[in-house]
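Posting for a labmate who doesn't have an account.
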Amino acid sequence: MSDPGGAGRLAAIWIKRAKLGPMDPAARATLVAGRGLVGNADQGRRRQVTLIEAERWVEMMAELGAALDPSTRRANLLVSGIPLRDSRGRVLGVGPCRVRIFGETRACERMERAHAGLQEAMNAGGDWRGGAFAEVVEGGEIAVGDPVSWLE
């Protein structure tokens, strides 16, 4: 597993244009401080951007015998090589931007509809397998492949 203080990378970006709408992949996107991801349906509030770990997704797919694309999770950012577990209050650097983790993203019934057992697998054991949600502290442009690391 990855080093808790180590660095990772931004593996994917998705933008949700409308509530319950499709997750559109993007090579680049803009984060706006206090708002969220430009073009994303969720703006403002504490849940400005959502993140999932690539390694945790692969782990769950293996457990479930499934091969769902990580976009199924409906998160905005897929990070690799950086653990999200128990990161509440920490600041994560994503390229030139900073996001403050507010908490664990709990899986809803949409995940169960995507694949039997997925909702339970994501919510099991308090391991943050469903990812995290954050506020944008410092905005800017991000791109797939950007470095991701814990700053505070």
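Reply:
Got it, the structure tokens are right above this. The chain has one domain: 7-150.
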